[in-house]
Design brief:
Distance between the termini: 19 Å
Strand content: 5-15%
Number of helices: 27
Structural class: alpha/beta
Radius of gyration: 28 Å
Strand order of the largest sheet: 7-3-2-1-15-16-17
Oligomer: single chain
Length: 651
Amino acid sequence: MNKDLRYLQLLSRSFPTVQAASTEIINLEAILNLPKGTEHFVTDIHGESEAFQHVLKNASGVIRRKVDEIFGHNMRESEKRDLCTLIYYPAEKLKLVRKSEKDLDDWYKMILMRLVEVCSVVSSKYTRSKVRKALPAEYSYIIQELLHEHHTELNKQEYINAIIATIVSTGRADHFIIAISNLIQRLTIDSLHIVGDIYDRGPGAHIIMDTLCEYHNVDIQWGNHDVVWMGAASGSRACMANVLRMSLRYANLQTLEDGYGINLLPLATFAMDVYGDDPCDIFMPKSVEDPGITPSQVRLIAKMHKAISIIQFKLEGEIIRRHPEYGMDDRLSLNFINYRQGTINVDGTDYVLKDNRFPTIDPADPYRLTEEEESVVSKLMHSFDSSSKLVKHMRCLYSKGALYLARNGNLLFHGSVPMNEDGTFAELVIQGKPYSGKALFDKIDKIVRQAYFENEGTPMKEYAQDFVWYLWCGPYSPPFDKKKMATFERYFLDDKEPKKEEKGHYFKLKERKDICEKILAEFGLDPEHGHIINGHIPVKTIKGETPIKAGGKLFVIDGGFSKAYQPETGIAGYTLIFNSYGLLLVQHQPFESRAKAIEEGLDIISANKVVEFATKRKLVRDTDIGKELEQQIADLKELLKAYREGLVRES
């Protein structure tokens, strides 16, 4: 029996008759002619959970635009704002309405009809089967009836009114409003793309990950800040130290302690013992937004910050010395310190250190951990290994994530594609073999997974753990791509020159259309119609920068959610919407707070710019899913032919 016939016989188990196969062909052909679903691109969230949750709830303004289109001038501005807030935060908004609304039953009936109207519009581009699968089980039948019947002839109006009145009279209005509001949010966005950097700086990365792990359709392109957390969870001690240092630098302990239950007491005790009389002035946190942190706690954080930084430099030195192929000997900063004079030599120039207290460093063997430091590192690693929530979130990052994604003509990645000055793809030697372009990305993706999933104690596991650290700060790492990460210099030196981090050639070359087209072709996409969607680099709008590069071939949509970046960008970044009509770039102003959004109806003020308009509305058949469905149709037609020729028998 040939291979094709065996495949058709297997397919016949799912479609055992001519009628079953024919019906599926009809269904798939119908789906191909629906409008493509809306894709939402978000990047560089950096732990800002409230702003991210709001952008997710309002779909970068899509829901507000739908409300404007549906109700136009038939509703006052304040009413439309209240309706949107109800859709975003139904439970919280209902509490406020119950306190202020005099005729609650009448309000319920009015608002339920409006919500059904919005839900009908956002569900119109999907099959009834897909909508049905998204419905909350307890209200599935009722919502189906309301969506199907509310536009029908007048003699059905009493039927609709009766359903609405019964929902209100049985006391289920609040539950129903919450259910249909959540359904509207879900149906507005068909797929969500997170183009890197969920972690670090902000306090709620664990909250964001909870949302993403449960989201109906999401993919994640790993950013350098995600990779360092993945390395820590994989067992890399250097990555773990970096994670702790970043958290302490921004006085952000919520994700570590509240989110993942990481026990910082061993580090705190060690820091007080060793650095108790050290003011640690240069290690004071950059910002302290949590009002619950007292001045004495800030001083303790500074001591912990210094303690883990010194440990980090030692652990990184071990990796660099194990891997001369990384070409990172210049990052062995502890080798270049004159401990007697309190200076350091960087690129041939001596600089005075702002802090020369190094009680745990032996100048003769600077990268050796003291016995106490070794104990602290072991206890911290045990805490990371024992966090069930961290395991859950890392599994989610691996299952939903990758280093890059090619989808519907767009190439998504965080950082860069390493390049030489002449525009050729730069090579990185991995395990003795050079890789570049797409092959480099594919190889890195494999190694990142091996770091987590390989058996403990194997040479490959240890190699991969070290390599994940390289991805965080290595010169030719796609998520980083700078000549160096000047962490030591930023802490210990006043001079600007040694702090400079020279970016890879990609960051200049990406302005050229021909380079972007070359990259698209390398990853198997159409250079003429494709786009690169890039995270990692904050767009400094305040200085006149634009996120649209290379004649529209490249979009740099660093979300700018991180408050640390907003003074230099002037905005809260960009998101991108790709619907059946084209590409829409959305520029956001800073988000005040969830409380303000609920109580005052304050949305994120967004400016929209159509960057590409389709002269012909894109259908499902024009997408990657459409290509898969067309292949399924071709297979089913072969099955029909086999039935009719007697090669396969109906069951």
